[in-house]
């Protein structure tokens, strides 16, 4: 009887392990180039007929071109996920170029709910960091220069800021074809509809009028 229980537990643990690690759809063929289906909601994408697949399905050009960083935070993110490169479908990866304005260009605190991020600094000097989960909330940070690499674990709040007097550029890899992004300030203060000010006032230990001001500031930016 014990052996039967042991086998059952072993099977359950194996299944649980498989489910925990399966963030993106696993490939069951060489490739599954994504096609759009407007009337169907699916956790993933439908596949193009393999006979119709072409090189352009796996291709993007222009990531070397500097982006405009003239905005409130001095940042421009060029994300290449499955929507830009259909051939990424089921492969579990995506890529981004990040441009930072001189003297404080900021990628604000945010999380990727479906992907770990690995960042390579190409130009400039960045101060980066992430915060571990409760209860420790440990802040882990480092100054990075060109050629340096840093990893931000999946789901943890992290940021980057350019501390150089010149522009900075980083290339980022993410462990999902669609990692998602939740910018903390935008999500909390710019949600639609807004979170009740009394809730945020108590959560952040802020005067309710300050919360209302922040909500007006971030309105429409989530």
From TrEMBL:
Keywords: Apoplast, Disulfide bond, Glycoprotein, Manganese, Metal-binding, Secreted, Signal. GO terms for cellular component: apoplast. Residues 1-22 form the signal peptide. Oxalate binds at residues 107, 112, 117. Coiled coil: none annotated. Pfam families: Cupin_1. Belongs to the germin family. This is Germin-like protein. Mn(2+) binds at residues 110, 112, 117, 158. Gene3D superfamilies: Jelly Rolls. May play a role in plant defense. Probably has no oxalate oxidase activity even if the active site is conserved. It is found in: Secreted, Extracellular space, Apoplast. Its main location: secreted. GO terms for molecular function: manganese ion binding. Residues 61-212 form the Cupin type-1 domain. Disulfide bonds join 32-47.
């Amino acid at each position: 009887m014990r052996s039967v229980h042991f086998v059952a537990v072993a099977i359950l643990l194996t299944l649980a392990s498989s489910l925990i690690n399966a963030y993106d759809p696993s490939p069951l063929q060489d490739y599954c180039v994504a096609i759009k289906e407007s009337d169907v909601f699916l956790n993933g994408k439908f596949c193009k007929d393999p006979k119709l697949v072409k090189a352009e399905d796996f291709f993007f050009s222009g990531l070397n071109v500097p982006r405009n960083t003239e905005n409130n935070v001095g940042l421009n993110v060029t994300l290449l996920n499955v929507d830009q490169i259909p051939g990424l479908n089921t492969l579990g990866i995506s890529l981004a170029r990040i441009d930072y304005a001189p003297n404080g260009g900021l990628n604000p605190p945010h999380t990727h709910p479906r992907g770990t991020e690995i960042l390579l600094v190409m130009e400039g000097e960045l101060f980066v960091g992430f915060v571990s989960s409760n209860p420790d909330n440990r802040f882990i940070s480092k100054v990075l220069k060109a050629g340096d690499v840093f990893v931000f674990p999946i789901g943890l709040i992290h940021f980057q800021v350019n501390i150089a007097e010149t522009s900075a550029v980083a290339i980022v890899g993410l462990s999902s074809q669609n990692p998602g992004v939740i910018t903390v300030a935008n999500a909390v203060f710019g949600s639609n509809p807004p979170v009740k000010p009394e809730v945020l006032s108590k959560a952040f230990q802020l005067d309710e009028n300050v919360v209302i001001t922040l909500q007006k500031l971030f309105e429409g930016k989530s």
